[in-house]
Amino acid sequence: MELQEKLNQLDAAIDQKVKQANEQVLLSVKENGKMIEDSLKSELANMLTEHKELSQKQYDELQTSIKKAGGFSNQGPESFEQMLAKGLDENKGKLHAKKNGADRLDFTLAFDQKAVGDMLVGTSLGTGVMQPNLRAGVVERQAYFNHVRDFMTVRPTSSPIIHYIQENGGEGSPTTVAEGALKPQIDYDLVLKTAEIKKIAAHLRLSEEMIEDVPYITNYVTTRGAEDLRLVEDAQILYGSGTGSDLRGLNLDAVAFARPAGIGTIANATIADIVRVAMAQIRIGRYRATAIMLNPIDVAVLELTKDAQGGYLFVNTANQGAVSTIWRLPIIETDAVTAGSFFIGDFTNGAELYDRKALNVRFYDQDRDNAIRNMVTIVIEERLGLATIRPASFVKGTFAAARTALAAA
């Protein structure tokens, strides 16, 4: 039987015996001093002795458990067992009072506990209880749908220099000839041109630990790096300076926008008006435009154009896959074209792109001090050349200048 249970039983028995003794004392007063029976006094004394021994034993066991636990600590909250032991220790004098004749224990143990309240995330959950979720991988930037090269003829080459024939017009024209009459002479102006292979490249350095511990990082940086390289390639094809490490861009050979003879004045010309006139300019030169390059802002302006009733003119523009069209001409949205400008032409036959080394990604662990630092160098690069074969098949300009040209008498 547990000590506490024995103590409780003894408390009840002692109470009963004390009650009997009190009754006998009262009876003795009435019956002229009759004393408490010796047997009752003996039983009561034995019970008090046993209660004292059990109380001392319980107290000693609590003290022993406290010492084994290293005593009371000021660090952190006390457990219920610690608070109980401390309460008994503070009231040990009352526990020993039994031996001095006290017939009941008289003390209360008070425990300072948290008040009952609502359970909230901010008050009831400690650090680390609620674990956050981590989305696997990196949210990648959406790749552009199209690049300039997607609309061009691309050829492989094994040489760093490309020689090509550029067509710059000619004189004369065939005609009908009567019997014995002189046939007209014609010629074509062909010029030998040279395109040098240029390199577009970038590199990154990653630790081996990052590559090993973050499984998606390699795919992310290489995909993102390749897309960024393509954006630079777009700008080089259109606007490369032709000096140093730059390609000779189409801008250097394309012809300026001009209103062809036979097209009257157009006041307040829209983007759609200008595109259609540029298409005619190219067609009169015996070529056919295959695409138009526009800045995303100008595409938005084009598609937001409304008629007199407020209806959108291009809300039902036909689509070829993901590419919008205007006048049956694919629209290529590219940041390479400056807002307010346009590039239109025969990208299939008017120029050719040559890949000396197609876009590739290589890993090096022996670059610089990579070996002793556990680093890996990632190189993203390509080598390419651009040949503008028919300059007259490309028309360039700004919308502001084109509006002025179309409004002139």
UniProtKB/TrEMBL annotation:
Alphabetized NCBIfam families for the sequence: major_cap_HK97 (TIGR01554)
Compartments reported by the entry: Virion
Residue runs in coiled coils: 3-57
InterPro entries assigned to the protein according to its UniProt record, in alphabetical order: Phage_capsid, Phage_capsid-like_C
Lineage: Bacteria, Pseudomonadati, Bacteroidota, Cytophagia, Cytophagales
Protein name (record): Phage major capsid protein
Organism superkingdom: Bacteria
Phage capsid-like C-terminal domain sequence ranges: 128-399
Keywords: Coiled coil
Pfam families assigned: Phage_capsid (PF05065)
